[in-house]
């Protein structure tokens, strides 16, 4: 049974320079306990997709179409009070900068107890106990004392743990995490990823992990969705997307990552740069940078195909099987 | 191989002086003292001509401070820097000034290192004219040639920095550095702010330039994947001190310092499949108040009593150097 089903989601920004279709027809489903990695470069619409699910898109942006079915209920149709009951309760979000979650002038306990009592009638004592156990779960030592600290008294990694603890407070069914480890150092990032991996297994919470770093997703996600210019261009099981990508963009992205295996050699770069979202090219948005593009790509936008079970591609000429890629 | 750049026990302290109220409070008996950070603490290594040396470490390890001292942007508080055998430690000497022209730096954020009110032509050409590498009349052609080297269309020379994308802006920063014909480039997190596909383009550009212009690099980054790809040798820093030096192959295949081991172990890898993330415990300590002895001992799985007492020295064996008691008679 799927926890979340997003159908043809469209979020547009109405700017002076024209309508920016930041998210333009995104479909995906998320099963119970599943971790989906949503990958893309800046401006691909990955964060806006996450914000749209929680209906946190600010003007001039607006969700203009599509359905966001959370356990069968369309979040796009909920009234604002109904949506507020969802946020932080059934669906939680972790932001890149934990200071977006934390109020700098309130102690951690005030903020955590408030988050519990906003959704449930429990005593302050019970809420406090729940806060302590949430902090312990994310690996904060002596949680009872740390509750009385202010956000500035924590290091960056610890702040992010507090933000994750807050997201866990009400036992949500879905957590949307927007680049939560991007600003952290390597050793701190791997600590947080280890905690999150353990928590996802233990609580069975479904997760959407938004990142630009394919390597993070490689170790964490069950499935990966790759976004480009407001659309998902490829979805599949993590192993498949990483080892046998079908979309030329996914192939280029993987080839761009430096590291093991091709030390000192030239990287297989993608030519050109990300398109201007206010003036997308006709047809497939990736065509001007694509090594396989033909006339058809410049005229018609490709539809989603499913060449193998579980593998969804939005490409006229996907790389199927292991053709010789030269 | 003779060293192009030599650092000999280079140190940098930052001291926060007490303000007048704090001085008064101290006179009245308050227990206040000047706080002092040893951002770089006795760093010694060398870079040979044509080599790419990667400098890695996490935030606060002093890698950027070290880069700035080599570039002559920040005076050293201890030790010596030699460039081509000439002492350039004191930035006011003529030798240091000429070295500074041959050593150029490329910064992380091109938006804050490019003057937003200058046109690209002036940004790139100004220093070259000042140093007599070209005349004011020939500058447009000189700039055009430099822009072509970094893969920018010379037709953009009259534009301002904000009219470019992040990757293009970084290319302008590179063009500005190349305009004075440097031999040594310091890249301080120069690609950290770029998207993966643009990052690959700039890495390829760095490698093409190295080949075409015979450049030597000090490449500073927190991203071990990038360092592994681009560097010939790697220097690892932790809280102001060098903990390990080695050739890239040797260091990545068989790291010997526990901190290097932890760092390399913890890079998320594409080819690892679904991995369990392994961790080392603890946080990076505050450089204001670093642990005594070996700075890494509170997080080190192999630490013993000696690590708390005694600072390990960097011991050289051929191309390898390690600062760890495990390699030097044990931790007891």
Rg calc of chain B: 22 Å
The overall pLDDT average of chain B reads: 89
CATH superfamily of the largest domain in chain A: P-loop containing nucleotide triphosphate hydrolases
Number of helices of chain B: 12
Which structural category fits the helices and strands of chain B?
Answer: alpha/beta
Strand content of chain B: 15-25%
Low-confidence runs of at least 5 consecutive residues of chain A: none
Output the structural class of chain A. Answer: alpha/beta
Helix content of chain B: 25-40%
The CATH class assignment of the largest domain in chain A is Alpha Beta
Major β-sheet strand ordering of chain B: 6-7-8-3-9-10-12-11
The helix/strand series of chain B, from N terminus to C terminus, equals EHEEHEEHEHHHHEHEHEEHHHEE
> Major beta sheet of chain A, specifics?
8 strands, mixed
CATH topology of the largest domain in chain A: Rossmann fold
How many structural domains does the protein architecture of chain B include?
Answer: 1
Unreliable stretches covering 5 or more consecutive residues of chain B: none
Instruction: Specify the number of helices of chain A.
Output: 11
| Most residues in contact: chain pair | A-B, 47 and 43 residues
In short:
Chain A is of the alpha/beta class and about 325 residues long. Chain A has helices at about 45-55, 80-85, 110-115, 125-135, 145, 155-170, 185-205, 215-220, 240-245, 250-255, 295-300, and strands spanning about 1-15, 20-30, 35-40, 60-70, 75, 90-95, 175-180, 205-210, 225-230, 230-235, 305-310, 310-315. Chain A has two domains: about 1-80 and about 175-315, Rossmann fold (3-Layer(aba) Sandwich), CATH 3.40.50.300; about 95-170, no CATH class.
């Amino acid at each position: 049974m799927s926890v979340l089903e997003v159908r043809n989601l469209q979020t547009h920004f109405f700017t002076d320079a024209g309508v920016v279709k930041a998210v333009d027809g995104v479909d995906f489903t998320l099963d119970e306990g599943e971790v989906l990695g949503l990958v893309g470069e800046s401006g691909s619409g990955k964060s806006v997709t996450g914000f749209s699910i929680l209906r946190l898109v600010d003007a001039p942006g607006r969700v203009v179409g599509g359905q966001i079915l959370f356990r069968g209920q369309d979040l796009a149709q909920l009234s604002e009070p109904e949506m507020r009951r969802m946020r932080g309760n059934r669906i939680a979000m972790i932001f890149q900068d934990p200071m977006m979650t934390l109020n700098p002038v309130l102690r951690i306990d005030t903020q955590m107890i408030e988050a519990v009592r906003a959704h449930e009638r429990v005593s302050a004592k019970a809420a406090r106990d729940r806060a302590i156990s949430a902090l312990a779960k994310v690996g904060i030592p002596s949680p009872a004392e740390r509750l009385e600290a202010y956000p500035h008294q924590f290091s960056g990694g610890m702040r992010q743990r507090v933000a994750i603890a807050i997201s866990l407070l009400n036992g949500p069914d879905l957590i949307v995490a927007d680049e939560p480890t991007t600003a952290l150092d390597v050793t701190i990032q791997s600590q947080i990823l280890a905690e999150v991996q353990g928590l996802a297994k233990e609580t069975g919470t479904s997760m959407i992990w938004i990142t630009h770093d394919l390597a993070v997703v490689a170790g964490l996600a069950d499935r990966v969705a790759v976004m480009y210019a407001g659309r998902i261009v490829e979805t599949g099981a993590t192993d498949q997307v990483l080892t046998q990508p079908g979309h030329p963009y996914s192939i280029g992205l993987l080839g761009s990552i430096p590291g093991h295996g091709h030390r000192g050699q030239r990287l297989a770069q993608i030519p050109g740069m990300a398109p201007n979202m206010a003036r997308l090219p006709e047809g497939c948005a990736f065509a001007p940078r694509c090594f396989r593009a033909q006339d058809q790509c410049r005229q018609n936008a490709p539809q989603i195909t499913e060449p193998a079970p579980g593998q969804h591609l939005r490409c006229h000429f996907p790389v199927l099987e292991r053709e010789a890629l030269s | 191989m003779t060293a192009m750049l030599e650092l000999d026990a280079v140190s940098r302290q930052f001291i926060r002086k007490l303000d007048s109220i704090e001085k008064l409070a101290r006179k009245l008996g308050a227990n206040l003292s000047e706080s002092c950070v040893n951002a770089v603490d006795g760093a010694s290594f060398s870079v040979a001509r044509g080599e790419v040396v990667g400098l890695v470490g996490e935030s606060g390890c002093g890698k950027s401070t070290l880069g700035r001292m080599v570039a002559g942007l920040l005076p050293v508080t201890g030790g010596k820097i030699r460039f081509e055998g000439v002492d350039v430690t004191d930035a006011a000497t003529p030798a240091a000034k000429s070295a500074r022209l041959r050593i150029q730096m490329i910064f992380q954020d091109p938006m804050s290192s490019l003057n937003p009110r200058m046109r690209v032509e002036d940004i790139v050409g100004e220093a070259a004219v000042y140093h007599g590498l070209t005349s004011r009349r020939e500058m447009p052609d000189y700039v055009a040639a430099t822009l072509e080297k970094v893969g920018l269309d010379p037709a953009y020379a009259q534009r301002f920095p904000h009219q470019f994308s992040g990757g293009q802006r970084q290319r302008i920063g590179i063009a500005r550095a190349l305009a004075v014909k440097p031999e040594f480039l310091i890249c301080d997190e120069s690609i950290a702010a770029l998207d993966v596909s643009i990052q690959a383009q700039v890495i390829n550009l760095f490698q093409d330039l190295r080949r075409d212009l015979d450049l030597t690099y000090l490449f500073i980054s927190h991203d071990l994947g990038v360092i592994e790809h681009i560097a010939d040798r790697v220097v690892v820093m932790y809280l102001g001190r060098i903990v390990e030096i080695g050739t890239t192959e040797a260091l990545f295949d068989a790291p010997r310092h526990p901190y290097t081991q932890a760092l390399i172990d913890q890079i998320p890898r594409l080819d690892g499949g679904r991995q369990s993330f392994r961790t080392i415990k603890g946080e990076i300590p505050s450089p204001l108040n670093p642990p005594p002895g070996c700075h890494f001992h509170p997080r080190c799985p192999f630490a013993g009593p000696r690590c708390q007492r005694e600072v390990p020295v960097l011991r050289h064996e051929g191309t390898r150097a390690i600062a760890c008691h495990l390699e030097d008679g044990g931790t007891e």
